UniProtKB/TrEMBL annotation:
Protein name: Transposase
Top-level taxonomy: Bacteria, Bacillati, Bacillota, Bacilli, Bacillales
Organism field: Paenibacillus haidiansis
Domain Insertion element IS150 protein InsJ-like helix-turn-helix: 10-55, 68-107, 130-180
Family: Belongs to the IS150/IS1296 orfA family.
Region (Disordered): 173-192
A Pfam family annotated for this UniProt entry: HTH_28
Domain of life of the source: Bacteria
Length: 192
């Protein structure tokens, strides 16, 4: 079988061969030219989600903030293994759980995923007062850049950069100095 992407039915056929003890894991690795970890992952996804788990992901799974927090707390309690936790909460992978643990331990919020909603990528011109209002709003709402970008119709990157400028230099750092001319006494002879 070629190593190119397999569809869900092809993956299912391989998983069922292994599940029905028609072939062992090592033999499947040799026969299909796949990594053992790939086969283990497919088996896990099939057990959790059925054939849908074997489909090529066209979108990210959504998890509530409560589910993320409970999964992390279960992990920190040490009573369940990572595999048991991802099975219990139907989490896509150990990597996903590890990311939540890292965020939690870094004292960052475990927010619910917004379902793939894309942020505005093209910014718009703003006044100094607008930038200040957006920054203060964002800081008051847990630095939720996406929410601020959506509400004020600016790009995520604009909000992010304004927050960084504000944190580094206060409100005056948000002033746009482009296009301003220097006072004549500040110009060098080369500028004339």
């Amino acid at each position: 079988m070629p190593k190119n992407k397999l569809n869900a039915l092809e993956k299912l056929a391989i998983v069922q061969e292994i599940e029905n003890s028609q072939i062992g894991l090592k033999a499947a690795v040799r026969k299909f030219g796949l990594n053992k970890s790939t086969l283990v992952k497919w088996r896990h996804l099939y057990r959790l989600y059925g054939i849908e788990g074997l489909e090529v992901g066209s979108h990210n799974r959504s998890y509530s903030a409560d589910l993320k927090l409970q999964a992390v707390k279960d992990y920190l309690a040490g009573e369940l293994s990572q595999y048991q936790i991802i099975d219990k909460y139907k989490i896509a992978s150990r990597t996903q759980l590890a990311d939540w643990i890292k965020k939690y331990n870094g004292h960052r919020n475990l927010r619910a995923y917004n379902g793939g909603k894309t942020a505005m990528t093209k910014g718009r011109s703003t006044t100094w007062q607008e930038r200040l209002d957006i920054v203060l709003h964002c800081l008051a709402n847990g630095q939720d850049y996406n929410q601020a970008a959506d509400q004020f119709k600016v790009s995520y990157q604009q909000v992010y950069s304004w927050i960084k400028k504000y944190e580094a230099g206060g409100p005056e750092a948000l002033r746009d100095g482009r296009g301003r001319t220097k006072a004549p006494e500040k110009l060098t002879e080369e500028a004339y």
